Amino acid sequence: MTRLSGIRSIMEDIAAAGQDVDDGDWLNLSPGNPSHIPEVVSAWQRLTREALDERFVEASTRYGPSRGTGGLVDALVGYFNLTYGWSIGPENVVVGPGSQMLSFIAATLFTGPGGDGRVRPLVLPRLPDYTGYQGLVMDPGGIVGVEPLVVDEGPHSFHYAVDTEALARLDTMGMMLLSSPANPTGSSLDAADLKALTDIAERRDVPLVVDHAYGEPFPGVVQTRVAPVLHPHVLNLFTFSKAGLPGERIAFAIGPAELIDPMVSFIANSALHAPQLVQATVESALTGRDIDVLTTRHITPYYKAKRAMAEALLEEALPDTLRWRLHSSDGGMFCWLHIDHDWFDDLELYELLKRKKMFVVPGRHFFVAPLDTPFLRTHGRRCVRLSLSPNEWAVAEGVNRLAEALRELRAERGGR
Prior knowledge:
By secondary structure, the protein is of the alpha/beta class. Helix content is 41%, strand content 16%.
């Protein structure tokens, strides 16, 4: 928890750049912050004002239940039962201060040293995955990542698949965790992958935690292949961050009561409860179905168009002689780019782009140690993540600077 992570080092670089007001304008294509879509911002401002005017006293001047306010928990139960035909109750829900914290709670509860002294690791079943997961465990050797299968889709497109056979060969695990749709790739589980993962979770008697931060039912940043599922071994995480409220740190988990109850206790013992004024705000968004309007009319179309624009820009700007592939995704907040050349190194590109006043995220930060496996040497270190959150001009200019940097890097290292 005290180590300088790769992402934190990038954030410090960005902060240092921002302090030099005479150093020109920087392009930041690294953040996971959602775009400021005017209609979305306006809706949340209205709902927040209503909560402030009508419910400030009950929400902000009193302590509340650790599971979440009764109104929000009931709203979540009603929303998901209506949307998916489920039959969940309040015992299946816990509200927390962000999905990152809910992930940490689950990892603390379900991984770590067992009664036999062996560490039950947190398993990331499909790398690359969200860098924040790497800080969830406090035990040496407490996190294990499974390298993916790489599936070609054409000269400039590919996707990752879960290597279920390699996953099944792991001798021990405490919990599996993955984002779907994934950060950084936008890849979402299909029905076969989800069934394979739930089967393994059931055989090993461990939780499978699926982080839906970018998918269904909201925010719909990426259109998914399969809806969330209820299963005795599945814990679903959802958040309002990518729906426009990242600074409010409000999220919730849905799953079997046997997994939810200890999480409620953890929140009671550590944070008491999640912030309550924003709970009132999102409760209104659920009961009035405002969240569905924001998702279908604004958020999903916005990122679908942004992704299509980025794909066209990359096709136009990148050199014809460059072997590059983009991870396929139907929409999404990121572009995950693979440069298939021996001369390419993600950290060298990062440093070169810094000199051009631009930030991206090196691909290696989305993989877990050890980082010297053949796959990571030939693939993981040859990837880079570009954010599509900035405005259209910034994305277009960023792609141009990227293409220029790749030409220079190839020339410097004698590549072809």
